[in-house]
Design goal:
Layout: E1 2-4, H1 7-33, H2 38-55, H3 58-71, E2 73-75, H4 79-96, H5 102-106, H6 111-121, H7 126-174, H8 183-234, H9 239-247, H10 252-270
Antiparallel strand pairs: 1-2
C-alpha cells in the first residue's frame, strides 16, 4: 500500500526557501531577480538532458519519470502485521493442511507473498523456495539499481553542465574586457549556471537517489522476512517457534511495544 511521502517535497521546498531567504535577506527582491537567468537554466537543463540521452537507452529513459514518482511515495511496511500474518497461516496450515491456504492467498495483495505461499502449497522443497524467492529479490534489486542510476548520473552531470555554462559565460565576457562596466554583471551571469547545477544536484538528484537506496534496502529486508515466513509455514514449524524466529527481525522499539502488549494481555487474562 503506497501513500504520499511528504518528506521529499517538504525537504525540497525547505531547501529552496533557505536559498531564497539567503538571497532576499541580503538584497531584497532585486537580489532574487538577479538570480533568474533563462539562458543559464537552458544550458544546465538542456545539457543535462542531452548527457542522459547519450548515457542511457530509450527503455532506461522511460523509467525516469516512474523513478521520480517513487521518491514522492512511500510503502507502508508493518513488520509486526506481517509476522502476525505468517503466524496465522502457520496455525491454519498445521490445523487444516497447506491446501487450506489457497483461499487465504487469493485475498492477499502482495504478489511476493502469494507466490511464496503457492510454492509452499505445491509442495516445493524449502531450499528450492528459498532459491526461487531470493532470485526474485536479486532481480528486483537490479531493476531498482537501473532506475536509480539515471538519478545518480543526473546528480553527477548537473554540476558539470553548470561549469560548462560558466566557461561559456567567461569566454563571452573576455570578448568585452575593453568595457570594465560589463565585467561584474557578466561574471554574475556566468556563475549562475554553476549555481543552478549545484542546487539541482545537491537538493534534488542526489538526495532522491539516496532515498531510493533506502527504499530498496527496506523492500529487500521485508522480502527476506517473507521468505523466512513462507519456509516456516511450508515446513510446518510450530507457530510459537516461527513467531520467535521472525521476531528477530523486529527493531528494538517494536520489540518493546510487543512485550508491553503481551504484558498487558497477561494482566487482563489474570484479571
Amino acid at each position: 500500500m503506497k501513500k504520499r511521502d511528504l518528506l521529499t517535497p517538504i525537504g525540497i521546498a525547505l531547501g529552496s526557501t533557505m536559498i531564497l531567504f539567503g538571497i532576499f535577506f541580503n538584497d531584497g527582491l532585486s537580489g532574487v531577480s538577479s538570480f533568474v537567468q533563462v539562458s543559464s537554466i537552458v544550458v544546465v537543463l538542456g545539457g543535462l538532458t542531452g548527457a542522459l540521452l547519450v548515457n542511457f537507452n530509450s527503455n532506461e529513459m522511460k523509467l525516469c519519470f516512474k523513478v521520480f514518482r517513487e521518491a514522492f511515495k512511500k510503502d507502508h511496511h508493518n513488520l509486526r502485521e506481517l509476522i502476525q500474518l505468517f503466524i496465522s497461516l502457520s496455525e491454519k496450515a498445521r490445523r487444516e493442511g497447506l491446501l487450506s491456504l489457497e483461499n487465504e492467498v487469493e485475498e492477499m495483495e502482495d504478489n511476493f507473498i502469494k507466490k511464496g505461499i503457492y510454492l509452499a502449497i505445491d509442495g516445493i522443497e524449502p531450499e528450492v523456495i528459498n532459491d526461487i524467492m531470493n532470485a526474485e529479490i536479486a532481480a528486483m534489486e537490479e531493476r531498482h539499481q537501473r532506475g536509480r542510476a539515471i538519478v545518480e548520473k543526473a546528480g553527477e552531470y548537473a554540476p558539470a553542465w553548470g561549469m560548462i555554462g560558466t566557461l561559456i559565460g567567461l569566454i563571452l565576457m573576455l570578448n568585452y574586457l575593453d568595457n570594465p562596466e560589463t565585467i561584474g554583471p557578466s561574471m554574475a551571469v556566468a556563475l549562475l549556471t554553476t549555481f543552478y547545477g549545484m542546487v539541482l544536484a545537491n537538493l534534488v538528484f542526489l538526495p532522491i537517489a539516496g532515498k531510493l537506496v533506502i527504499r530498496t534496502e527496506e523492500e529487500v529486508f521485508m522480502k527476506q522476512v517473507i521468505v523466512e515466513g513462507v519456509i516456516g509455514v511450508q515446513s510446518g514449524q510450530n507457530p510459537k517457534i516461527l513467531e520467535e524466529k521472525l521476531s528477530a527481525f523486529l527493531s528494538n522499539e517494536d520489540l518493546k511495544e510487543k512485550q508491553q502488549e503481551e504484558l498487558v494481555g497477561e494482566t487482563q487474562n489474570e484479571a
